[in-house]
């Protein structure tokens, strides 16, 4: 092991953004932090904030699983680990908590291994994290920050392209109860009508143009309204999150570009920063609203600073 301590900060992410199912991701300014130190024996996990008292504190903790999967790629596991997670990303809400946990684990393990960066490059981390998560959209945005478009080459190799979005803010409306990604994916049909796929392809292209067309200039929200239209996943998920779909419809009727964030049930609405507080104040009963900036940094690793306590 090279460093015996490391701290990793990972952003929340919103996947899909409407038409980009399993492809688009946006990093948001809400963060989890994992502090890890190598110990002589055993695994000790402490969690504060989101997930405390709920997620496992054993070997099957998601951050630990991702660390062990990464150590196994290097063919070396430390004798013991201390992990302290300080979480603010809510779980099972469509804000990329599982991707954050996986990316934190992969990057922490790589930083703890001798010459880790030379032996597992950033593309390798993306591939490993995506294989653990099952799809690449959230992990890509979590690793790289900004707006990401992810795809899978040859059925196995996850890749991603990062863009800087123009000036835009997000308000997330987070419902009280979670819906697991697994359950929300279970609602999707095996096939979709060709017309729906064609409609989504056009909107997905428009979304990249609308969000990333002019860095440092305000995003055109009228264009973004059209660009965030989706037919591939949101309608099928309505039975699991009817209030969220109703809120998406209500906001869109008022010309606010709103989507289901990731697998839901959070609703993400795009706006200009000046309007975000007003929009958040209109959160209906059952939702807690937060104004979030886009994160441009992605995951950040600090060596020698994790105390694992
Ligand atoms: N920091 C964490 N530590 C341990 N386990 C976590 C952590 N974050 C998420 N998890 C696990 O992942 C589950 C949530 O994952 P899930 O994929 O269902 O939702 P999500 O990632 O929050 O949303 P989405 O994938 O739609 O963005 C939690 O219930 C928990 O088991
Ligand atoms: N693309 C994924 C994101 C959630 O992890 C989905 O919608 O199921």
From TrEMBL:
Taxonomic placement: Bacteria, Bacillati, Actinomycetota, Actinomycetes, Propionibacteriales
Domain of life: Bacteria
Main subcellular localisation: cytoplasm
Protein family: Belongs to the GHMP kinase family. Homoserine kinase subfamily.
Pathway: Amino-acid biosynthesis; L-threonine biosynthesis; L-threonine from L-aspartate: step 4/5
Name of the featured protein: Homoserine kinase
Domain spans labelled GHMP kinase C-terminal: 225-283
NCBIfam families the UniProt entry points to: thrB (TIGR00191)
The keyword Protein transport belongs to this UniProt entry's keyword annotation: no
Top EC category: transferase
EC code: 2.7.1.39
Gene3D superfamilies: 3.30.230.10, GHMP kinase, C-terminal domain
Catalytic activity: L-homoserine + ATP = O-phospho-L-homoserine + ADP + H(+)
Coiled coil regions in record: none
Domain GHMP kinase N-terminal intervals: 61-146
Subcellular location: Cytoplasm
Keywords, alphabetical: Amino-acid biosynthesis, ATP-binding, Cytoplasm, Kinase, Nucleotide-binding, Threonine biosynthesis, Transferase
GO molecular function terms attached to this record: homoserine kinase activity
Function text: Catalyzes the ATP-dependent phosphorylation of L-homoserine to L-homoserine phosphate.
Annotated PROSITE patterns: GHMP_KINASES_ATP
Cited Pfam families: GHMP_kinases_C (PF08544), GHMP_kinases_N (PF00288)
């Amino acid at each position: 092991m090279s460093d015996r301590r490391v701290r990793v900060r990972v952003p929340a992410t919103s996947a899909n953004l409407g038409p980009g199912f399993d492809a688009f991701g946006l990093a948001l300014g809400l963060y989890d932090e994992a502090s890890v130190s190598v110990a002589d024996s055993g695994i000790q996990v402490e969690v504060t904030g989101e997930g405390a008292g709920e997620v496992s504190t054993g070997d099957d903790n998601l951050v630990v699983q991702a660390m062990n999967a990464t150590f196994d790629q290097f063919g070396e596991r430390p004798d013991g680990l201390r992990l302290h997670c300080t979480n603010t990303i809510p779980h099972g809400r469509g804000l990329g908590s599982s991707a954050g946990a996986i990316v934190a684990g992969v990057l922490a393990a790589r930083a703890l291994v001798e010459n880790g960066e030379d032996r597992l490059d950033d593309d390798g981390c993306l591939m490993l994290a995506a294989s653990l998560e099952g799809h690449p959209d959230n992990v890509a945005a979590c690793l790289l920050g900004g707006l990401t478009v992810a795809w899978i080459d040859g059925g196995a190799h996850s890749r991603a392209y990062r863009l800087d979005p123009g000036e835009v803010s997000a308000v997330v409306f987070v419902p009280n109860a979670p819906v697991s990604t697994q359950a929300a994916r279970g609602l999707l049909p095996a096939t979709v009508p060709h017309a729906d796929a064609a409609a989504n392809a056009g909107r997905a292209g428009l979304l990249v143009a609308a969000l990333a067309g002019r860095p440092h200039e305000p995003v055109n929200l009228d264009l973004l309204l059209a660009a965030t239209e989706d037919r591939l996943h949101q309608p099928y998920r309505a039975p699991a999150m009817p209030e969220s779909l109703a809120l998406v419809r209500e906001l869109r009727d008022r010309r606010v570009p709103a989507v289901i964030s990731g697998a839901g049930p959070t609703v993400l609405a795009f706006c200009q920063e000046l309007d975000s507080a007003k929009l958040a104040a209109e959160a209906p009963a059952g939702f807690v609203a937060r104004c979030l900036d886009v994160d441009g940094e992605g995951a950040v690793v600090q060596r020698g600073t994790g105390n694992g306590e």
